[in-house]
Amino acid sequence: MLRKPGSLSAVAAFVAALAAPAAHAEWGLNMTRGVTQISRDVYSLHMTIFWWCVAIAVFVFGWMVVSLVKFRKSKGAIPDTAMVHSTKAEIIWTVIPVVILVILAVPSARTLIQIDDSSKTQLSIKVTGFQWKWQYDYLDKGVSYFSTLKRDSDAARQMNSGIDVNGVDNYLLDVDNPLVVPVGTKVRVLITAQDVIHAWWVPAFAVKKDAIPGFVNEAWFEVDADKTGTYRGQCTELCGRDHGFMPIVVKAVSKEDFEAWLKAKQDEQKQASLPAPATAG
Amino acid sequence: MGNAHSAHAGHDDHHGAPSSIWARWVTTTNHKDIGTMYLVFAGAMFLIGGLMAMVIRAELFKPGLQFVDPAFFNSMTTVHALAMIFGGMMPAWTGLANWMIPMQVGAPDMALPRLNNFSFWILPFAWLILVATLFMPGGAPAGGWTLYPPLVLQGGDSLPMAIFAVHLMGASSIMGAINVIVTIMNMRAPGMTLLRMPLFCWTWLITAYLLILVMPVLAGAVTMLLTDHFFGTSFFNAAGGGDPVMFQHIFWFFGHPEVYILILPSFGVVSEILPTFSRKPLFGYESMVYATASIGFLSFIVWAHHMFTTGMPLAGELFFMLTTMLIAVPTGVKVFNWSATMWKGSISFEPPMLWAVSFLFMFTIGGFSGLMLAIAPADFQYHDTYFVVAHFHYVLVPGALFAIIGAVYYWLPKWSGHMYNMSLAKWHFWLSTIFVNVLFFPQHFLGLAGMPRRIPDYSTQFADWNMVSSIGAFGFALSQVLFLVLIWKTVKGGAKATDQVWEGARGLEWNLPSPAPYHTWEKAPAEAAIIQASPTGH
Ligand SMILES: [Cu+2]
């Protein structure tokens, strides 16, 4: 279809024209497929339900539209006032939805059970929500640090900052110290909070769990071995003034890179803790 | 109760309304005047809540912070929700109940007229208190209308005032609900059996039971917040052995039935309007009653679907997912019955019908997203994003609010005695319907693309749909000016409405003159008239 260069450039011009009013815009429509088996399962569940809803909508809305067009008084429709009840119809439209619900419930329950299975994790990270930042604690690895909104975003987000937010890379979705995890590894996150309830959400992993002060929630993800990259999310439980400004950034790296990063981080933190023994705790 | 029929009743009760403003509008016990006051109050609160929505949509028009501080933004989302739910929707339904239930069941007034006056007059004071917090140091409540601790406890001086206001509103709602129940149970005209009642009475009866069951639960929850904050208790404080998630359980045990409190009466209204303009009785009247009752029952066992991400045990997640999915069945029965009502009818599109049909389509869209949200694994992605915002606004705006507006268009000629300007009404309808979709439909996309709710600023990738949504919001708000103009003009004057008003309308209210006299059914309607006016005709 697009073989001729002429039509290709026409299409390109059209797309450019569409994109012109907002250069950084994406007109995103749908959920991400994500980069874990679970996120893909969730995506396919989402699409399955969506298409069932579309099918039901076509039927129900179609029925309504036909009624509205066909049985108009202005077209001389005579009401069938005897048509007030039908046990048969009512049984049908009770039973069929039940059957559809069962069809939907089975894969949903299966995915839910898989999500719940946090056995055999290979790495545990404690995630703590603060007003308004995250702390990541690599358990038994001696690595712990805070992750806060990156400074360029933070400067641009101030009221009438005069900074064009479109010029800031990953505006509001970037942090100083991202969480670093290895791909192909079942990572367990233990989620809690220090002050109020937050929620830790990374859409690409289909992980969203509340961070509740005094309680520890558990979640896990395993990034596909070939899906190294940076994945972004946000706090999703209202947590006060700067709720919108505590993003989550996860860098998924190869296992070797992760080991190297961990080693470097351990050394760095050991170094940092040496000269100040009095601040233990 | 025989008082109203007694010859000893106050003399001027039998003639028109009292002439002094004090007796007419302050100390009144007349269900119609109280109904009017409820509706006017609701209108004012819709205006206030709507202005807050405009602040929210203006700030979200483009990325970056332009107008308000994030803390004030949080106050706006919080008070907007409270104003719309407790100040707008619930009083609007109570106002409609006041006006219509006595007229529909053949009763001279509500059963407990003084309580009726009291339950209304609590509201302006409750709202004075809540709105006053906007002007206090520290600002209005900003922890979300869901009032989750510990965040809500950071609220400062506004917290006790908000809690007191919630208590007052709860007391008012409970009194209103008691009045509806007693009126329907004891004041029906002889021959008006329960299954001869219009569905508006039925849905309100079930709503009233929900109110009585859950408003005290909310009162308990906020009281525990109060004692946690001021009296050293630790109901929701983990450090003291409490559990913040317990608040969410209690809140949503109230909160889920609450959303049905907002929507059930609209089922009733739509079940009156569709048969009228299809010129055909409601299809499956009894199954509509049973479906409403089962939705009411189910609403008590689904609450934790608002809390899938709190880390419930697997069994809990499965249970709440399945019960929530089950609600689709009685809701489906309703939608199918409504569709069957129009099928083989003789349909015309007067304004009330337009709103009802619009309700039918868009409430169903809200139902679809509700079914999607029921699926717990998918909810992990949808939860607390704009997808949820889109869902509940579809259910509450083109759902419940459109039904309220449709009800006003349906009964305004009966109340005022005047017919309204049809072309103005159609303009109002079409602009509202178009803009409400421009406003809320893109929010589905925003949520799926990953935009959390309750944020004052967002990443640039969400810019386009936010701008579209904001344009829809401004358009929708401006369209409502037409409604105000139309109501004003209709109350002031206009073509005389007939008693029947709508050709196909059934129900006792249409046997009364238009405008409905100050006192109606002082002499109960005859059983033959009741049977003829009943939804099923027998
Ligand atoms: Cu947070």
- Class by alpha and beta content of chain A: alpha+beta
DSSP summary, beta strand count of chain A: 10
Which topology of the largest domain in chain A does CATH recognise? Immunoglobulin-like
Radius of gyration of chain A: 26 Å
What's the assembly state of these chains?
A: heterodimer
Form type of chain B: globular
> Shape of chain A from CA axes?
elongated
Describe the model.
The complex is a heterodimer of chains A (281) and B (538). By secondary structure, chain A is of the alpha+beta class. Chain A has two domains: 99 residues, Helix Hairpins; 151 residues, Cupredoxins -  blue copper proteins (Immunoglobulin-like, Sandwich). Chain A is 37% helix and 21% strand. In chain A, the strands form three sheets. A five-stranded mixed sheet of chain A has the order 3-2-1-5-8. In chain A, α2 packs antiparallel against α3. Chain B is 66% helix and 0% strand. In chain B, α10 packs antiparallel against α11. Chain B starts with 20 loop residues before the first helix and ends in a 5-residue tail after the last helix. The N terminus of chain B is likely disordered. Chains A and B meet through α2, α3 and β7 of A and α3, α7, α8, α9 and α10 of B. The site of copper (II) ion has 6 residues of chain A, from loops. Copper (II) ion binds next to loops of chain A.
